[in-house]
Amino acid sequence: MKVRVLGSAAGGGFPQWNCRCPVCVLAWNGDPRVRPRTQSSIAVSADGAHWFLFNASPDLKQQIAANPPLHPRGQGRHSPIAGVVVTNADVDHVGGLLSLRERQPLSLYGTERVLATLADNAIFGVLDPQVVERHTLVLEQTAPLCLPGGASSGLSVETFAVPGKPALWLEGGTGSREDTVGLLVRDGAGALLAYIPACAQVTEAVRERVRGAKLLLFDGTLWRDDEMIASGVGSKTGARMGHVSIGGPAGSLAGWAGISIPRKLFIHINNTNPVLIEGSEERQAVIEAGWDIAEDGQEFLL
Fold this sequence. Notes:
Layout lengths: L1 E6 L14 H7 L12 E5 L5 E4 L5 H7 L14 E5 L5 H4 L11 E6 H9 L11 E6 L4 E5 L5 E10 L19 E7 L4 E5 L7 H6 L5 E5 L7 H4 L7 H4 L10 H4 L7 E5 L13 H8 L3 E2 L5 E3 L1
Parallel strand pairs: 3-4, 4-5, 5-6, 10-11, 11-12, 12-13
Antiparallel strand pairs: 1-2, 1-14, 2-3, 7-8, 8-9, 9-10
């Protein structure tokens, strides 16, 4: 199984287009200790020829251009992108679907809740159902990821609920266990990827779900809960947004302590997070705990 990090930042990317928080200022000034990042998304393939996107970032066109395995080949219209799996209805996870509207055959996977949300928003009708096949993912069940037309891709995905909340733009409605999910992605050889880009708490149930994974990509949005407030660029805490912080006694570093997974990386990192700064105290704490920070363009072979 091949796993490529297309984007590793949270909504807005890094640096965020309208932000001069202390971390973004470093990026705007060209400080070599920080690297620009696009909004969170990964691509997975069992054969290197057919790829599935996991979340479709608003930066998708830029990400395709930066990743040659996703370039069209041959003559006429073609794409090695066989489908998209969305974990929730956050703008930074579904906005890129609008860039896939050129009548390219695709398979679109999501929970009933997420697919219904897309269906209720007329703008996503540009993904013609006659061309873009919808597939419902059921919690606690494993589903094959199929190429357009039904052929096997060699990958399967298991969907499970994690602590979270509805997308901010959907607040006010009734919550559901399908609002925030994690994914276990397997290939025919048994390689296992755990992908959880949003999670409000590292519970024992979440820890048990990912045991046996060779690679864990986990929510690294904030270092501390009041980070955006302290940086002077927001009024919401991490808990309010459904994201567990990395640091602190109730944070994810503490929550994942003792878990035996060969590679563990934080992804979906907010522009205010000091772990983006190489050499920072926070980055060093992450490394000493056996974790790393995801970067755009990384590829892992499981």
